[in-house]
Amino acid sequence: MGTLGFWRLAAADPAWVAAVDPDGTEHRAGDLLARANRLVHGLRDLGLRPGDGVCGLVPNGSDGLVLYLAALQAGWYYTPINWHLTGPEIGYIVADSEAGAFFVDERHAEEGMRGAAASGIAPERVFAFGRIEGARPVSDLTDGRPDTAPADRTAGATMHYTSGTTGRPKGVRRPLSGLDPDDAAELMTFLLTLFGVTPRGENAHLVTSPNYHTAVTQFGGTALHMGHTLVHMDRWDAEETLRLCERYRVTSSHMVPTHFKRLLALPAGTRAKYDLSSLRWMIHAAAPCPVPVKWAMLEWWGDCIYEYYAATEGGGTIATPEGWRRYPGTVGTAWPISELLIVDEDLEPVPAGTPGTVYMKMAGVAFEYKGDPAKTAANRLRDHFTVGDIGYLNEEGFLFLCDRKADMIISGGTNIYPAEIENELMVHPKVADVAVFGIPDDEWGEQIKAVVEPAPGVPPSPELAAELVESLRGRLARMKWPRSVDFIEEMPREPNGKLLKRKLRDPYWEGRERAI
Length: 516
Description:
It contains 18 helices and 29 strands. The chain is α/β, with parallel strands linked by helices.
């Protein structure tokens, strides 16, 4: 231990360009270090102590990075919040995470301030990047503070929120290690070394997706702790991705299959005009990648494409280019510190080739769903946990996924939980019953379909469908709105009231290779 970790690297080489904002502004490591240090001093004076929470509603770029770097050296939990959420949804996370400070970028001022009000956080603990009425400028915290390292540094952690099938998101909270922040960061770099990623050198990591995703924070943060330059994108664009890869000699990124589909849709001339020779570790996950899409990307970019399967809770698999070529469609073999277990409905292990529920464990990693010991326990099998996915292992230990947990929708790499949408639609007076599920979408993987049983005397119509979707405005993020609404005379339910969602869902998936 002792050669990696952002704070250590920045002190040794303050001139290294550690981050590039979406507008092209470059930030040197020494400047980011000074900003993070000043923020720690300011928040400590505000009363924050190790174990407290800090929330950020900020776009990709250096401001969010400073929050992350401050929290992770002061022993705080940092929660980046999805900026597509509405005020009440934001407020729930700020309150549930017990945030001692909430940072809002002026771009997200309207919903951010609604969230602050809904959360009950004291107004003097709400800070603005930019100008927001009712929030204090961040400079209130940092002006006049020393840019020297704070005393008693201790490792913090990120606490991302993962939606539960009950519709309320849960914070995945890990015990704080008590380690020196740089030593903890160096341990984190194990993740990228699994893919063969090397530290320092002329390496740049392209941040293609919003920083509120667990994997985006994890991979970007780890690359930074290895001394790589983070190049941030604001809104993802296929050709802009290629331009940035050439401009900054990008060596690694974290992507989802939707990105691949859009890149492959570019005209051949556009695809050919950029120099992509720097690419070494282009890592993808979050949704199944159709086999033809993966083959086409390997043909174009060569053997720099790695895949993995994991969960916010910990543990996972990795598919190297060579492994995937041997077994197309696999999500790989278990990480060296991870273990896979496939069990039947009686929770007994099944033989190779037999589908069952996928359980994982990761050595030395504990977690809990904050405030929900029942959910934590329900997902456990001794020291393994599951997110409810169905899959099988072949004789050589390569994992293949057959089906996602039936209820979860994965659209563009984002997990969407239908119960939350169903709960909002059920309150509409013209709805007697409702079911929400994912149907195939060639671009996004899945799109959201709602099937509604209208209230007695209410005729189904396109106008009713539009009214129901519109009723979600201001209550649910737009990405959770159904793309289409079908009507049914009577919802298929068992006598005990359990909805037979597969009866509704299966016809849309007929003829598909896998229902995922």
